[in-house]
Amino acid sequence: MPYAPTTAETFARDTDAVLASVSRVIDGKPAAVRAALVCLLAEGHLLIEDVPGVGKTMLARALAASVDATVRRIQFTPDLLPGDVTGVSVYNPVDREFEFKPGAIFAHIVIADEINRSSPKTQSALLEAMEERQVTVDGTSHALEDPFLVVATQNPLEMEGTYALPEAQRDRFMMRISMGYPDAANEALMLRQRDTANPLDGVAPVVDTDQVRGLIAWARGIHVSPAVEEYTVGLARATREHPDVRLGASPRATLQLIRAAKVWAALDGREFVIPDDVATLVEPVFAHRMIPARGSVSSRGRSSADTISAILRGIVGSVRVPLATR
């Protein structure tokens, strides 16, 4: 029988165990660890944009090991083909028919390393997989694993030989985060602990994939009041109507913000979403989907990312917060 938690206490016990397990590998980055778990339980995908060597791939592997999930890593390069990701049909001379050979996308957690180094054609191979959780090869659809999470990484500094993710691709990611450098104490701790041993070797599963499916089902049932729904829609509409924004948050972004807020509330031990849950997640869910207008007042002297962050802070401060549900 599939595992199905029935109480907030059961959900908290299992998710606390996962967070603690991953945090033993990813030192001093509780926000990044929590974001990865939110994406997994909200059935979204995670984009980590940061410089090399800060633990992006390690985070995905630690999460997979903690939930007893299969994990595959795809190194995106200019010569990577779509079939390498999705799989191909190969002719079997014995049976005289084509057989489907699954690609690297067939795993519970897929690490798309340096996703912006592959061609747009190869990047597009992920679109159907990330949205519909299936791939179609030669007219036949093949279901992916359940649960399924894509953790993609990209380097924001080294742009030579890269292909910027198109808007449709970025919109498939529920959240975008940055790991950032560890503080001095955690970096020194890393030197002592990892000089002779790989921290992943000590990670044992604390839940299995059946339990993860139960956690996902529990999070889906978290209550969202009409007032909070209206607040979420108001935030999304404000991004589309802002004079300094050329492309605002999509309806998919609004839906994913609610899904992420449900998991966020459940992790805090609540069975209902409050406006603070939504406001906290606005930037990681909306920012990578937005494009500032050229020559806008907000963008003067700022990078594109800083401009969007400033705009979102202004939107959160200006959209009316519901004082009570109804």
List the helices and strands and how they pair.
Layout: H1 8-23, H2 30-41, E1 46-49, H3 56-66, E2 71-75, H4 82-86, E3 87-92, E4 97-102, E5 109-113, H5 120-123, H6 125-132, E6 134-137, E7 140-143, E8 149-154, H7 167-170, E9 175-177, H8 184-193, H9 209-220, H10 226-241, E10 245-247, H11 251-267, H12 275-286, E11 291-292, H13 304-318
Parallel strand pairs: 1-8, 1-9, 2-5, 5-8
Antiparallel strand pairs: 3-4, 6-7, 10-11
Q: What does this molecule look like?
A:
The chain has 326 residues and is α/β, with parallel strands linked by helices. Helices cover 44% and strands 15% of the residues. The protein has 13 helices and eleven strands. It has helices at residues 8-23, 30-41, 56-66, 82-86, 120-123, 125-132, 167-170, 184-193, 209-220, 226-241, 251-267, 275-286, 304-318, and strands at residues 46-49, 71-75, 87-92, 97-102, 109-113, 134-137, 140-143, 149-154, 175-177, 245-247, 291-292. Strands 2-5-8-1-9 form a five-stranded parallel sheet. A two-stranded antiparallel sheet has the order 3-4. It has a two-stranded antiparallel ribbon with strand order 6-7. A hairpin with a 4-residue loop joins strand 3 (87-92) and strand 4 (97-102). It is globular and about 70 Å long. The model has no long low-confidence stretch (mean pLDDT 88).
